[in-house]
Specification:
The complex is a heterotrimer.
Chain A (H helix, E strand, L loop, with lengths): L1 H6 L1 H23 L11 H12 L10 H32 L1 H14 L8 H8 L3 H25 L3 H9 L4 H38 L5 H10 L3 H29 L7
Helix pairs in contact in A: 3-11, 4-5, 4-7, 4-9, 4-10, 6-7, 7-9, 8-9, 9-10, 9-11, 10-11
Chain B lengths: L11 H26 L9 H10 L10 H32 L1 H14 L8 H8 L3 H25 L3 H9 L4 H38 L5 H10 L3 H29 L9
Helix pairs in contact in B: 2-10, 3-4, 3-6, 3-8, 5-6, 6-8, 7-8, 8-9, 8-10, 9-10
Chain C lengths: L11 E12 L8 E12 L3 E5 L6 H9 L6 E6 L2 E2 L7 E4 L11 H5 L1 H5 L4 H14 L15 H14 L4 E5 L7 H17 L3 E6 L2 H7 L2 E5 L6 E6 L11 H13 L5
Parallel strand pairs in C: 3-8, 3-9, 6-7, 7-8
Antiparallel strand pairs in C: 1-2, 1-4, 4-5, 9-10
Helix pairs in contact in C: 4-5, 5-6, 7-8
Chain lengths: ~260, ~270, ~260
């Protein structure tokens, strides 16, 4: 027993610390009523709401938790795929061809410092408040990380590897597909992960501003109706889905990128 | 092929300038022509008009204030929140990286909060802090804080144990090891964190102001949206982009100055 | 085990008594015995070389002498007091130099005196003295990253000297240097040591380096490392790599080396 305690000392402290915070939270809300439930609901209440929303409750925003998740996820992944499909080839192209880089980089550099969120008004004005504008916003969020990382990845291809390829008589195209892209793959994957993270964040922002469904919409509605328990359920779900997406990509990266540490 | 040699009679630098001018000019020309002679004119004001409006915005107010005042509001919000998050983020990061006890206590709580995007806190922060600046400080703080903490933590965790050993051998106390070794060798990591954080903070202020504000660049573009004023949105975006660019480069310039020793690797 | 006779006299500075070190196996794997029954002493102002081929043991032994690692058997005494942890009386020069990359050369050299609260003026004098000793005057404001490998080792030596330790432990300090620089640094170290004598324990796997520097050589064998033989070297300095006596000793010691790993 003593040995067990010693071995898992820090894990136990972690668990205790977490439980302690929950306990204090529960005490100041449900037990002593020091904080109004309109400001901060108790953990018990949040759990209750979570179970309610999970098991098909549609109040107060008119959709179940799964419907909201699905609505958000659909749009996020849609915009993400478009962003990656354009961003990765663009990054690779800019790194590989000097002429293309000279022309495209200034244009890219204009867009780059602009946060994806700043596109929201323009997109909504141009494309309406439906899914198309949100896909546009998420496209910008994903596109920039994907491009930057692919570009850097290719640029870091070791000159020696290229020389080796050349001395074996590889053509330019072969050098690109057999040497440069495989070397850049860890970086590209990192870019894909960052892009997915930005896409998810941008989606939430877009849904806060204009939506009729989705997790961002859910927490915005909950605020207007004074339901902090639903807000917190929504926030935790958003965080959890973000984490999940990242983990999935990490697993994919470990599977596909062999012989290289992740960048 | 990554070709660093150029066969033309211009140097790489000259070529870059030439191509930059060509590509930007062609963008402006296509934009201008599209906005003047095609059906895009419905929703796209000509480039020249946007640029003129941008210049005018420094003397003519948009809403109640001129551009500089709007930028001032946004930058002030970022500066306050960034300063608070720098202090707390570095303290927390170094603390968790150096002390296993602090790490065990705080890391699970931190990891619990970290995946929640800062903007998702907006509804709750409006409930808690109302519509004033405090709520915005809170959102921007969250936007910066996590990056600074995570990077500082990595830095403090990755201190070369041989350097700590060397310091102890030379007679340094634990306190001296902390202040003379752990802290300075985390500095490059901290700067990497600050650089991401400043960009994230700028993005967060735009988001926060879009959801709830009466001034600032985020307000400017969202106001343009609700009044259908594309030109105002674009003027705001130009300003946001320029400031974003300056902020990102300011931190890397600062890093190069303060971490000159880190330029030559391989010690 | 044979002991070398004569040649080295003086007070005992460091005693290594029957030291053994066994590392616990990972996840129930077999334990790894690295040191067994290592027993020797170091006398004042002697240059002792711990020489052996192969990977295991030498650095562990030096870390134990330094107090950075604890033996699982036996004890280490410094001037009669048991070693329980690192102390400024025992300076270490590492293979990787372990200079603090964010400090200038002078701050690196002055680090020991600084953390031991030496007044500023005295500290400056000491930095000056030892930078002069290692021949680095003029590089005070450089960062370690701007120096060559040999120069970094000089800073490392100056840093150890500046603390004026009772004994200096050197763990293959020239192991990373190219052959040319290595010869030069060996001569430099010999010159520095002649100028300001210290008790030195020097670990190396290079026989020429050992013979060039040592007053006494302890030959270590491999896995678990223990002492095979001791040699007193009383050739005059500076030594010549092709001197017949040098070559004879070199032959004798290499013949005794245990080349199985």
């Amino acid at each position: 027993m003593k040995q067990f305690l010693q071995k898992h000392k820090y894990k136990l402290i972690s668990v205790c610390s977490f439980l302690f915070v929950l306990l204090v939270w529960e005490l100041v809300t449900d037990v002593f009523h020091a904080i109004s439930p309109l400001m901060l609901p108790s953990p018990a209440k949040i759990l209750e709401t979570f179970i309610y929303k999970l098991s098909g409750g549609t109040n107060p925003d008119g959709a179940t938790l799964f419907e909201n998740i699905w609505a958000s996820l659909k749009i996020a992944l849609g915009g993400y795929v478009v962003g990656v499909l354009i961003g990765v080839p663009l990054g690779v192209g800019m790194a590989w061809s000097r002429r293309f880089e000279l022309f495209a980089k200034p244009l890219f550099n204009i867009i780059r410092p602009l946060p994806a969120l700043a596109w929201i008004p323009l997109m909504i004005l141009w494309l309406g408040i439906g899914y198309r504008s949100k896909i546009g916003i998420i496209f910008f969020a994903a596109f920039i990380s994907a491009t930057v990382n692919s570009y850097t990845g290719i640029r870091r291809t070791s000159q020696v590897h290229l020389w080796v390829g050349k001395t074996f008589g590889a053509a330019n195209r072969q050098l690109l597909f057999k040497v440069a892209i495989p070397t850049a793959l860890p970086m590209i994957f990192t870019g894909l992960r960052l892009a997915l993270g930005s896409a998810w964040v941008a989606l939430v922002a877009a849904e806060l501003l204009a939506a009729t469904r989705g997790l961002g919409f859910m927490i915005q509605m909950a605020r207007m109706l004074g339901r902090p328990d639903v807000i917190i359920v929504g926030m935790l779900t958003i965080g959890f889905i973000g984490l999940l997406l990242n983990t999935v990509l990490e697993k994919l990266q470990n599977k596909f990128v062999k012989g290289a540490k992740k960048g | 092929m990554i070709d660093t040699t150029s066969k033309s009679r211009f140097s790489i630098k000259q070529l870059t300038v030439i191509y930059t001018i060509i590509s930007l000019l062609s963008l402006l020309v296509v934009w201008e022509l599209a906005a003047r002679f095609t059906s895009a004119s419905m929703f796209l004001p000509p480039a020249s008009q946007v640029l003129m409006a941008f210049c005018r915005s420094f003397v003519e107010p948009i809403g109640k204030h001129t551009m500089l005042v709007h930028l001032g509001y946004s930058l002030y919000r970022v500066a306050v929140a960034f300063a608070i998050s720098t202090v707390t983020g570095i303290a927390l990061g170094v603390g968790m990286g150096y002390s296993r006890l602090l790490e065990a206590i705080l890391k699970p709580l931190f990891e619990f909060i970290r995946p929640i995007p800062p903007l998702a806190w907006i509804p709750l922060s409006i409930l808690w802090f109302g519509l004033g600046d405090t709520g915005k400080f809170f959102i921007i703080f969250l936007g910066c804080f996590c990056f600074i903490t995570v990077n500082t933590y990595d830095g403090a965790k990755n201190v070369d144990p041989e350097l700590m050993g060397a310091a102890r051998m030379l007679g340094a106390s634990e306190r001296q090891v902390f202040f003379e070794i752990v802290l300075p060798s985390s500095v490059p990591y901290i700067f990497a964190g600050l650089q991401i954080a400043v960009t994230a903070g700028w993005s967060a202020v735009v988001g926060a102001e879009m959801v709830q504000s009466n001034e600032g660049v985020g307000w400017m573009i969202v106001r343009g949206m609700s009044t259908g004023n594309t030109q105002q949105i674009m003027v705001g975006m130009v300003a946001i982009g320029i400031v974003g660019f300056i902020l990102a480069n300011l931190t890397s310039a600062l890093e190069r100055r303060l971490c000159a020793w880190n330029e030559q690797k391989g010690v | 085990m044979e002991r070398a006779k004569g040649s080295v006299t003086g007070n005992v500075v460091l005693e290594c008594r029957n030291v053994g070190r066994t590392f616990k196996g990972y996840n129930g794997g077999p334990d790894n015995e690295v040191l067994r029954g290592v027993d020797f002493e170091v006398r004042e102002n002697e240059f002792l070389v711990l020489f052996g081929a192969g990977q295991c043991g030498k650095t562990t032994l030096l870390n134990i002498l330094a107090g950075l690692d604890m033996p699982t058997e036996g004890e280490v005494f410094a001037r009669g007091k048991k070693v329980t942890g690192p102390a400024p009386e025992r300076g270490v020069v590492y293979q990787k130099t372990s200079l603090f990359p964010w400090m200038t050369v002078e701050d690196n050299v002055g680090f020991g005196p600084k953390v031991r609260h030496m007044p500023k003026a005295e500290r400056a004098a000491r930095i000056k003295k030892y930078l002069e000793l290692v021949g680095l005057t003029g590089f005070e404001k450089s960062f370690p990253g701007q120096l060559s490998g040999g120069m970094r080792q000089r800073v490392g030596i100056a840093r150890a000297y500046a603390n004026q330790p009772d004994i200096m432990l050197m763990d293959e300090p020239f192991g990373h240097l190219d052959a040319q620089t290595r010869y030069m640094m060996e001569e430099e170290l010999q010159r520095i040591w002649q100028k300001e004598k210290r008790t030195v324990v020097f670990v190396t796997n290079n026989i020429e380096e050992a013979l060039f520097l040592a007053d006494r050589i302890i030959l270590l064998t491999n896995c678990p490392t223990h002492i095979k033989k001791e040699y007193a070297i009383d050739m005059p300095h500076p030594r010549d790599y092709v001197d017949p006596e040098f070559l004879r000793l070199r032959q004798e010691i290499t013949d005794n080396m245990d080349l199985t790993l």
